[in-house]
Task: structure prediction
Amino acid sequence: MKKSRKWLYLSCLLVMFVVLTAGSTSVHAAGKLPALKVKGTKLVNAKGKTVQLKGVSTHGLSWFPEYVNQKSFDHMKKKWKANTVRLALYTSDYNGYCTGDAANRKALEKRIDKGVQYATKAGMYVIIDWHILNDNNPKIYEKEAIAFFKKMASKYKKHTNVLYEICNEPNGGTSWETIKSYAKKVVKAIRSKDKKAVIIIGTPNWSQDVDIVADSPIKGYKNLMYTLHFYAGTHGEDLRTKAKTALEKGLPLFVTEFGISDASGNGVLNKKEGAKWMKFLKSKKIGYVGWNLSNKEESSAILKSSCKKSFGWKEKDLSPWGKWLVKQFK
Ligand code: IDC
Result:
């Protein structure tokens, strides 16, 4: 080939490459993070390498929408080294998704959409959390959950960084059989749109009785995990024993919410018990997400109540729990 032709040929190739990659990053920026799979009790990437997710949960999206912004998510990723954010969508409670009106539902869906976009741009995994709490039995809003998750799964099926948490904390004596029957329907709804996304399923007794679940997990689907929640001011060795039992039976666990205050989200921090929990989570490579990104006057808030910034925080803006949590990520 003549020298000039060769250059022409090479520059054409270069232009084609630039056009193609630019197109794919703008449309599918979501493709940047590797899709995760469940293998044994752990999350792994395509090469089979274990990935431990670690991050921060928003408070309820209706209460504290101001923290869902690009700079905030970038800050958590770059400065705190968190790789995951959880978007807590209360179903009931203050302006809940199922109790508020249609305009409220629309606003919340938009907030989730923004949250997913910001997380994607920041290079973070994002958990969409159906935050049942006072509505203790997920069956109460089962119809709404099926419609919601179908919509989300269809919207985000190309996003390799989106995970679904389908019922935060069943409580009030709701049995595993009841949760299981709900979960099967919601998992089926998600799988009708997205064959692969990781789905995290709540467990009885405020997502603590994982040992019971381990005796009869849901069969027939890949990439399912189960929720374990703890607050180190209240929960210690007894709950870790349940977790160990579940892991021994092969149940994949994900700590999608935790704190070191007491279970009310307030009271004194128990750092000593917190350290035991972290040692356990790190040794088993279990993902963990700290509650909550807000400046609410409570000890489980990551920011001091005097801090009015919704991004760009300094060390002095963090509460004692916030400082402790951020140290775990590094
Ligand atoms: C708490 C919040 C608090 C809010 C309350 C009721 O910290 O500001 O008033 O919910 O909505 C959970 C729940 C989580 C709780 C948290 C602390 O998942 O919603 O948040 N907690 O009580 N499980 C155990 C503790």
About this structure: The longest strand covers residues 224-231. The beta strands are 37-39, 42-44, 54-60, 84-90, 125-131, 162-165, 199-201, 224-231, 253-259, 288-293. The pocket of IDC is lined by residues 93, 133, 168-169, 206, 229, 231, 257, 263-265, 291-292, 296, 298, 300 (CB under 6 Å). Residues 18-31 have pLDDT under 50 and may be disordered.
